[in-house]
Structure formats: C-alpha cells, structure tokens
Amino acid sequence: MRNNDKLKKKSTTTSTSTKTKKQQNDIENSINNSNKKLSTCPNCYSIQVALKNRHTECFKSLVATDKEHKSRGDSPLQVAVVMQDSDMVSQLLNDSTIDAQRRQSMVNFVNRVGFTALHYCSMTMMMERDKRLTENHSYLTKKIHFPGRVKKLDDPSLVRADAGLKTLEIVELLLNAGADVNILTPTNVDAFGIAAETGLLPLCKRLAAAGADLERPNVEGDTPLMTAIANQNTEVVEFLIGSGVNIEYVNERNDETAYQRAGFYTFLPVLKLLIAAGAKDRDVSNTALHSTVASNKLAATKLILQHQPEAINFRDVGGASPIFLAAQSSFSEVLAYLLEQGARIDYTVPGTGDNLGHVLAFSGKVGDMKVLQSAGINVKTTNLSGETPLHEAARGGNSEMIRYLVKECGLDVNMQNNSGETPLTLSVRQRKLGGTRELLELGANANHPTPDQRYPIHNAAEIGLPKMISLLIEHGADINVQNSFGQTPLVLAIERKNKTCQDILLSITRQSIGS
Fold first, then answer.
1. 419-476: per-residue pLDDT in tens?
2. How far apart are CA 236 and CA 228, in angstroms?
3. How far apart are CA 456 and CA 243, in angstroms?
4. Where are this protein's ANK repeats (predicted)?
5. Phi-psi region of 332 (alpha: psi -120 to 50; beta: other; left: phi over 0)
C-alpha cells in the first residue's frame, strides 16, 4: 500500500491563492507606491547606470517605466535580484521609511507571472551557473582548436566554487527580511523546487535550513527528488536522500517512483544512490529494469539485478518482462545476460500470445534467434492469431530472418494465419519490398487469396506500389484476378488514382491482348 500521507499532510504553504484579497491588495499598493514615476537625475539614464550610481529613487523610477518589467509587474526588489545587485537589494530592504510589515509584504510580493524575489534568486543562480559553464566550454574549445589565440586571462576556470555566491548573499538578505520559502509559482513549485531541478545544491541547503518542504510535488506530480533525477543532479539527489525524503513516493499521474525515473535516464551514479538507500522495483509496473534494458544499458541492468534479482521477471503494465524488450530490439548482450540470470522464456504477451520468438523475428538478428532456440523457444509455435515468427518477420521485412526460418527451421512459407493471410500477404501490405522478394524466391505463392478473395497484387495496386506490382508479376501473379467485389488490380489502381500502377497493369494487359 502506497504511503503518500507525508506529502498529503496539511501544508503551511503561503500562496497568492490563499492570501486574503486585502493582504494581496496591501502588497500591491506597497509596490505601486514605491513605483510612482519619479524624475531621474541626469546621470541615471538606464537601470544599469542607476544601479552603478547607487541611486535608489532613480532605479525605482526606471523600473516603473520599463516596458518589460511593467509587463511582468516586477517590483524594484525583484529587478535588483535579477540583476544580482546585493547592495541595491540591501538598500531597498533597509529603507528607513518602511516598517517591518511593509518590508515583509515587499519581499513576498508576487508579480503577474507568479514569481517572488526568492523564486528569481533560484532562476538567477541557475543562469549564472549556466553562463559560467558556457564560458568554460568556449574557452576549452578555443584552447583545443585555436591554442594560439588563447590568453591565460581568458580562463574562467571550471565551474568555480564561488559560482552563485552573489545570489546566496541576496537569499540571506531576503530570508532575514521575512521571505516565505513556501510561496508557490503557478506550476506549484517553490524556490526549493526550482533549485533542486536545476542542481543548485548550496541554495537547496540554505532553503532547506529555512524550512522549505523537500517533498512537495509540482503540478506534474513530480517531487524535487524526481526532477533532480531527471536532470541528473547527483549532488542534489544525494542531499535529498540524506535528508530523509520519501524515496518510495509514487507519482499517481504516471505511476512512477524515483527509482523508475532513475532507470529511465539510466544514470549510474543516481541509481547507485537510490539502491544504497533501499529503493526497489515493483511488479506489474514500468520498472527501472525495463528502462535500462530498453535503453540497452548493460552496466545499469547488471547493477539493478545484483540489487534485486527477482525483478528479472517483473512485468510492465503491458505484460512484458524485461527480456521481451531486449528481444524486441535485438540487444544481443543484454538478451544473453538476462538468459544467464534466469529470465523466464515461457511468458507470452497478453492479448496477442506472442512469445519471445515472435517479438524478436520482426526486426531481430538471426544469431539472437538461435540463442533463444537454445534456451527452449519453439519457432513453430503460433500466437492467438495463428501466426508463427515467420509472419512477424514478414511484417517487419526482416529478409535474413525470413530466410533462416524457412530454410533452416522448416517453417511453411505459405502458412495461413487465422484470417487466411500468408506471410506474403502481410509483407506486401506492410510495403516490405525486400521481404516480399525473399518470400517469393523461397516459393511463396503470389496467387494465394484471403477468404474475401483478396490477392497480394490487389493490396499492391490499392496502396500504390508499382515496384511491388512488377515484382509480383515477375513471380507469376495474375493481373486479372477479382476480389469478392469483382474488382481487378487495375480497377483498384484507377479508383485510388495510382497512375504508375495503372500504367504497369495496362501495359501487361495490352501485351496479353496483343499476343
């Protein structure tokens, strides 16, 4: 039984939706009063210059008249945060003309896009980090390709330990002024959620110390742990696990746990952290193991099975065990490893009855089919539709597999399924020219009809496959056959306006009449 009670507990979150109308009006009036248009001094002709000059009133006036900031409803404090100017932030917060209540209203003001100054701290710190990473990448690229143009002073160093220190200083100022760490954006994310998603460990630690909720799901149902995993923020994942967050939380929107998310991204460092914390897969779900197998990640697959051997035969929501995913994509190494570890081969896919041979035949390798046969798979077994792996190989146009199944395994090239369709019928319908040629060369009957008197050449003419028509004719297809409605291939080609097919069929008809 899932236990998400911790996440569903009554929150102390302060949100614009829970503030009374009067409280929000008081905040807006406070900001509006500070944003009244003022005249600026001659030396302050832009926001940046006003910041440089430390002219608070000029800065307020310029922010109030700036189009971009007006459109978002930004306060001067929010702009100072975005500009990473701790001195201006300090000046605005320590204004002697405002009392403590007004200061708290100012620091927690929510603009039109739903952001507070604290939210902007998280965003700004992320942009500062990304800027430094970009600078570093640019420097290294120059150093490798244009070493003669690089100066020592160009080196921004690898992600520096002091990255974001300005923003952390601003965060401290905001928290000391009464910033609420639990105010949410319209996507149900607080400042901590933004910091966790973007991998800002120092900020995560500071916000956690200030009382941030480390487990609050966003609008998509993902917790900070899950968003940190998705962005491969190993340090943040380690911090959250060490802080005791619930690693078994299930996102009810997609029935996913943090462990499954880590498996999907097949990121070994994060998988190791979750395994060390005791995370495990659940049966009848899209497990972490399913994800690592589907991604052909052998190392991650081994890691998961060493931790939880029984997961090898867990089924996903579609009823497939991990080995089916390996067979489907013919991931030879992973397939062989799963067999070595005792993967069951007697499962079939619910609804179709396909066994591993059917799944592999569509696009897999002959070598892998031989491995499955050695493990006990019978390639002559039919599924619920009466089809053998040969029918699947024909659907997939897998010429090598078709040849192997007919010549070496003895499957009947003209075997009909429950609908009376032969592998050739399926190959033509799926437009597999190479597979069709292989089947015909192996003796497939080009004139075998389905119960409704539909011949392979009817399908080719209706779909519009001139090369397929020519190939079928070369192998004895009759162009005058009629379906149950009395239509010949030529009639279908005309109805579907398949001009090239018409021309081929008319040419053969004329030759026949002429002879």
1. 999 999 999 999 999 999 999 999 999 999 999 999 999 999 999 999 999 999 999 9
2. 7
3. 65
4. 220-252, 318-350, 385-418, 452-484
5. alpha
**How many whole angstroms separate alpha carbon 477 and alpha carbon 126?**
66
Domain ranges of the chain: 14-139, 446-515
Question: Which amino acid would we find at residue 269?
Answer: P
Tokens of 49: 């210059």
Give the least confident one: 3-7, 79-83, 187-191, 268-272: 3-7
DSSP-derived secondary structure for 475-491: TT--TT---TTS--HHH
- What amino acid occupies position 109? F
Query: Considering the chain, what percentage of its residues have pLDDT values greater than 70?
Result: 84
pLDDT for res 144: 53
Q: How far is CA 348 from CA 91, 310, 345, 416, 461, in A?
A: 70, 19, 8, 21, 36
pLDDT band at 10 (very low <50, low <70, confident <90, very high): very low
* Angle 32-34-37 from CA coordinates, rounded to 5°: 85
What's the whole-number mean pLDDT along residues 377-402? 98
| 256 strand-pairing partners | 251
Q: In 94-230, where does DSSP find H-type helix? A: 100-107, 117-145, 165-176, 191-197, 201-209, 224-230
Question: Are 241 and 270 contacting, i.e. CB atoms less than 8 angstroms apart?
Answer: no
Q: 446-515: which CATH topology?
A: 1.25.40
CB atoms under 10 Å from CB of 434, counted, come to: 13
Which residues, 6+ apart, have CB-to-CB distance to 76 below 8 Å?
Answer: 34, 35, 59, 60, 63, 64, 92
Main-chain phi, psi angles of 397, to 5 degrees: 65, 30
How far apart (Å, rounded) are the C-alpha atoms in residues 515 and 512? 5
Residue 364 tokens read as 């897999």
Give tens-digit pLDDT for 103-158. 999 999 999 999 999 999 988 876 665 554 454 445 445 545 555 554 544 444 44
State mean pLDDT over 233-262. 96
Element (H, E) at 84: none
For the domain made up of 14-139, the CATH class stated in words is: mainly alpha
Number of neighbouring beta carbons within 10 Å of residue 141: 11
**412/398 Cα distance (integer angstroms):** 16
Cα 259 from Cα 273, distance rounded (Å): 10
For position 119, what pLDDT does the model report? 95
Q: Please tell me the distance from the alpha carbon of residue 284 to that of residue 314, in angstroms, as a whole number.
A: 6
Mean pLDDT over each residue of the chain, to the nearest integer: 88
Length of the chain: 515
- Read off φ and ψ for residue 54, nearest 5 degrees: 60, 35
